[in-house]
Amino acid sequence: MWGGRARAWLRGWAVWPAGVPGRRLLSCNAASQAGSPSSKCWDCSQEAPGVGDGFFCAQCRALQPPDPTRDYFSLMDCNRSFRVDTAKLQHRYQQLQRLIHPDFFSQKSQTEKDFSEKHSTLVNDAYKTLQAPLSRGLYLLKLRGIEISEGTDFEMDGQFLLEIMEINEKLAEAQNEAAMEEIESTVTDDFKKAKEILTKMRYFSNIEEKIKLKKIPL
To answer: Is the pLDDT of residue 191 over 60?
Structure first.
């Protein structure tokens, strides 16, 4: 129902070339590395890189607290892009729950039990957010410091698809840093348009949910 318009705009985020400031995409490997910082273990006090995707201490194997700097894309080992491989996302979700689900920590210390609960909740939230196009797009905007309040209304710009085509053409023809910076400035300004699109997507999503409820037999 949202149509290809919103997806087309958001897909424009994923085509920015590597090396241009503010547009670096996280590869799957980079995402994993981002979630494995070197820090002191709460249990053995050793400072060492984490193992098990950064969840466990490399020395004593105790479960560590969630990394507050890790975003959902990094956690779920996905590129920071509107385009997400949902099959891979589901596989990652199942893989993480086998690592940190509370059921596997019933015989552990209370600290590890608490950390397990927090990790599991975080993984669930990340999976649900990245699985659906609307919540994924809203989260991408949130990472850019842009949030859409409930009930907010915007007049939609019907020319944005043409603008994206023009930007992509300029990007393909750009030969120097100055040209890249000019395009980057345009894209930064156009994040407001993404906000408008996602606001409209939110309204359509609410209508779809109401339709589903209406179809449920009483």
So the answer is: yes
* pLDDT surpasses 90 at 40: no
**Residue range 212-218: mean pLDDT, rounded:** 73
State mean pLDDT over 36-64: 79
- Cβ-defined contacts of 124-129 (< 8 Å, 24+): 125/72, 126/72, 126/75, 126/76, 127/76, 127/89, 127/90, 127/93, 129/72
Q: Which amino acid is at 8?
A: A
Contacts of 70 (CB under 8 A, 6+ apart): 34, 35
What is the reported pLDDT for 142? 87
Q: What is the pLDDT of residue 93?
A: 96
Confidence of residue 15 (pLDDT cuts 50, 70, 90): very low
Read off the tokens for 112: 């590890």
Instruction: Give the Cβ contact number of residue 98 at 10 Å.
Output: 10
Q: Closest Cα to residue 115, out of 44, 45, 66, 53?
A: 66
Nearest to 10 by CA among 198, 205, 200: 198
Distance CA 139, CA 196 (A): 14
Query: Which alpha helices (H) appear in the chain, and where do they start and end?
Result: 3-11, 28-34, 72-75, 86-100, 110-131, 133-143, 160-173, 177-189, 191-215
Q: Any bridge partners for residue 48, and if so which?
A: 39
- Between 133-143 and 110-131, two packed helices, what is the crossing angle to 10 degrees? 110
**How many residues make up the chain in this entry?**
218
Q: What distance lies between CA 9 and its chain's CA centroid?
A: 17
At 218 the pLDDT is 59
